[in-house]
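Sharing a chain and its predicted structure for anyone who wants a worked example. Both blocks are below, sequence first, tokens second.
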Amino acid sequence: MPADPTTLVIPDLAGKAVLVTGASTGIGAALAQAYARQNCRVALHYNSSREAAEKLAEAIRDDGGEVFLTQGDFSVPADV
């Protein structure tokens, strides 16, 4: 991803895989974008906001990030 000179770069996060739960909106979406900017591979979890999660994944990919989506209701053990 292109480095913004005002953005903190944490080199030891590069290449790590992270799962962000509730990543389709709000704080989860912001965290997913921040991890992607640190060159992490990001798994975006969503429960019901598929369209928002897909839009976020597209934005991360457009910025050069590696991302994939995963859906599930974490209150249902079989989904976890």
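Comments welcome. Residues 16-71 form one domain.
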